[in-house]
């Protein structure tokens, strides 16, 4: 409700600005450009600020939208309103093809590739005769809306800011949804997201296309407002400026996109007026001064200006209560004694290092199996082989009779295998509830369009309700809305367990779940795991706390240097001389 009130108040203020008496046309035109830039930067909030994919080439997609409508309207007389979906389709296809090639890159290679294709498209615009080469196209018709001709900057103002309003609503709705959490998980690393059932490569392509479509809309509006286009506004410098707007405003914040677009546009405009009067007209001094200002800003407000402003606004500290909803569907539990997991001679080599050497064991439904051994024994590597994070060099892994060792992690998760990690993998700036809800990603199906139109509210209530249920189960019901990064390490491990449980697994793999927990918390965790066993869930447990392991597990598998040393009941393993010597330190 509070977000709706803020958005409504903002819309009223924006609508009233041109009605102010004696409002100069100059300021209306400047606001039009801020609106056009804001549409592009809202896409970059999703792509770069939230998804972590840096792109310097968004200006090229603005150009595709502008040149598409310019060419179709001037050469073939197509209605401008028809050129918008045509341009968006052309942009979507182009972005998908470019993304299919470049989004598999990581590190600095991805932004470098966006520079490369951005420059390529810019020079393509300037060298095609039918696009007018570097002179571009002129005579673009103005827009007509129910007999009203948009011929002035003031008349275009409401149309531009209507699209800004739509883009804000769509982006906010998207980020506050199942797909939005999956997009945020991209920035936290692909392993955690894939292990929760998120198709990371698919979501990267989706947000790449989403950002490109918003840029296309901006280009379409720009072309009809200017009535002429040429390649100069769609080059690398413009792409860099769009990215600067996002960073200055606050890369992960919707309102930061508008703030950054407004500040950069106004500051650049004023510098172009002031500096020539002070330093002379020879030279682009505004670029130098602007660069210095950006560096100073990033030194003192690295997350951008909007978070800095947000911290100084009154905080409500309130959260809307979770809506009552029916429970999410659950997969049927296996029958007691059913063979759940079978590892056959699994081996993993890293070059000349053998991390796991021909390990075999089986698990049954409703069993807690402990996997113990010294540090470096290969336990976490074996977890990766079972969950699809890493493929075995040789050997086989079967889950409920089906082979899974060649499946990706997301496919293994969808079959009913949940896991935690030795090193906690949470999204620290998201709430505890949202972190846990990522675990249920593969249990629901609503996509991007339903999220942007808020047609997913029933399913969203079910998903968040289940996440809250799992948090109450592991004793963190009072921390639903705290930032995950603010919790102690032991509590963060419990959040990871709740996230894994939210996926409704049949087999749960826990990597050192009791590390960092106090005695009472360990006892509570042991009670939860015992309850899960009673419900028919199987648990594969890696843990160094021997008291915790011996009092909870049904059987143990002992590893050392990648080799299985022993297997059996806890009391039998405790007496095994090989285990005592290798792990417990002494035969005596």
What does this protein structure show overall?
55% of the residues lie in helices and 12% in strands. It is an alpha/beta fold and 588 residues long. The protein has three domains: 208 residues, no CATH class; 164 residues, P-loop containing nucleotide triphosphate hydrolases (Rossmann fold); 78 residues, no CATH class. The strands form four sheets. It has a six-stranded mixed beta sheet with strand order 10-11-12-7-13-14, with helices on both faces. Strands 6-5-8-9 form a four-stranded antiparallel beta sheet, covered by helices on one side. The chain has a two-stranded antiparallel ribbon with strand order 1-4. Strand 13 and strand 14 form a beta hairpin. Helix 2 packs parallel to helix 6, helix 3 packs antiparallel against helix 4 and helix 11 crosses helix 12. The chain is elongated, with a radius of gyration of 28 Å. It starts with a helix and ends with a helix.
Average pLDDT metric:
90
Number of domains: 3
Q: Count up the helices.
A: 23
- Biggest beta sheet summary: 6 strands, mixed
Beta-strand residue fraction: 5-15%
**Whole-angstrom Rg:** 28 Å
Short description:
This protein is of the alpha/beta class. It has helices at residues 2-16, 25-50, 58-75, 80-102, 109-127, 153-175, 178-187, 190-195, 200-226, 236-249, 254-279, 285-300, 305-310, 379-387, 409-415, 432-437, 448-452, 457-473, 489-502, 519-534, 546-550, 570-575, 577-584; strands at 137-138, 143-145, 148-150, 228-229, 339-350, 353-364, 368-372, 394-399, 402-403, 417-419, 507-511, 538-542, 555-560, 563-568.
């Amino acid at each position: 409700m509070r977000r709706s009130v803020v958005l409504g108040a903002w819309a009223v203020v924006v609508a009233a600005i041109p009605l102010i008496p004696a409002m100069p046309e100059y300021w209306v035109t400047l606001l039009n450009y801020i609106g056009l830039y804001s549409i592009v930067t809202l896409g970059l909030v999703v792509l770069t600020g939230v998804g972590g994919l840096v792109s310097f080439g968004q200006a090229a997609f603005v150009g595709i939208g502008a040149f598409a409508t310019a060419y179709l309207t001037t050469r073939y007389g197509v209605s401008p309103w028809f050129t918008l979906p045509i341009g968006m389709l052309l942009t979507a296809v182009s972005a998908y093809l470019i993304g299919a090639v470049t989004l598999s890159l990581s590190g600095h290679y991805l932004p470098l590739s966006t520079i490369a294709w951005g420059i390529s498209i810019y020079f393509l615009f300037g060298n095609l005769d039918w696009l007018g080469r570097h002179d571009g196209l002129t005579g673009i018709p103005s827009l007509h809306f129910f007999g009203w001709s948009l011929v002035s900057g003031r008349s275009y103002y409401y149309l531009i800011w209507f699209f800004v309003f739509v883009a804000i609503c769509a982006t906010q709705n998207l980020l506050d949804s199942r797909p939005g959490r999956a997009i945020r998980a991209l920035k936290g690393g692909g392993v955690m997201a894939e292990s929760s059932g998120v198709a990371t490569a698919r979501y990267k392509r989706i947000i790449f296309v989403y950002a490109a479509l918003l840029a296309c809309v901006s280009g379409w509006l720009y072309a009809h407002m200017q009535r002429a286009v040429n390649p100069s506004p769609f080059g690398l410098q413009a792409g860099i400026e769009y990215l600067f707007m996002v960073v200055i405003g606050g890369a992960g914040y919707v309102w930061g996109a508008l703030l950054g677009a407004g500040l950069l546009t106004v500051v650049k405009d004023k510098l172009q007026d002031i500096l020539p009067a002070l330093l002379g007209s020879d030279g682009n001094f505004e670029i130098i001064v602007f660069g210095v200002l950006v560096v100073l800003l990033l030194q003192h407000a690295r997350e951008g200006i909007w978070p800095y402003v947000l911290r100084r606004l009154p905080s409500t500290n309130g959260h809307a209560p979770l809506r009552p909803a029916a429970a999410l569907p659950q997969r049927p539990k296996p029958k007691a004694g059913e063979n759940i997991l079978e590892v056959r001679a699994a081996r993993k080599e890293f070059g000349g290092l053998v991390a796991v050497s021909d390990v075999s064991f089986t698990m049954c439904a409703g069993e807690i199996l402990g996997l113990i051994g010294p540090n470096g024994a290969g336990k976490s590597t074996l977890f990766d082989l079972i969950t699809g994070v890493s493929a075995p060099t040789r050997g086989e892994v079967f889950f409920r009779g089906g082979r899974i060792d060649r499946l990706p992690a997301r496919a293994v998760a969808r079959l009913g295998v949940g896991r935690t990690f030795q090193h906690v993998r949470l999204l620290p700036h998201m709430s505890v509830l949202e972190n846990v809800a990522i675990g249920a990603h593969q249990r629901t199906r609503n996509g991007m369009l339903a999220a942007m139109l808020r047609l997913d509210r029933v399913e969203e209530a079910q998903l968040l309700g289940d996440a809250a249920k799992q948090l109450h189960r592991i004793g963190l019901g009072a921390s639903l809305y705290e930032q995950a990064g603010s919790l102690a390490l032991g509590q963060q491990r419990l959040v990871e367990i709740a996230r894994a449980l939210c996926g409704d697994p049949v087999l749960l793999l826990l990597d050192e779940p009791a590390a960092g927990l106090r005695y009472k918390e360990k006892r509570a965790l042991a009670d939860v795991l015992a309850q899960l066993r009673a419900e028919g869930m199987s648990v594969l447990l890696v843990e160094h706390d021997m008291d915790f392991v011996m009092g909870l597990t049904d059987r143990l598998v002992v590893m050392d240097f990648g080799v299985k040393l022993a297997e059996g009941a806890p009391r039998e393993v405790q007496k095994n001389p090989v285990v005592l010597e290798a792990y417990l330190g002494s035969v005596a």
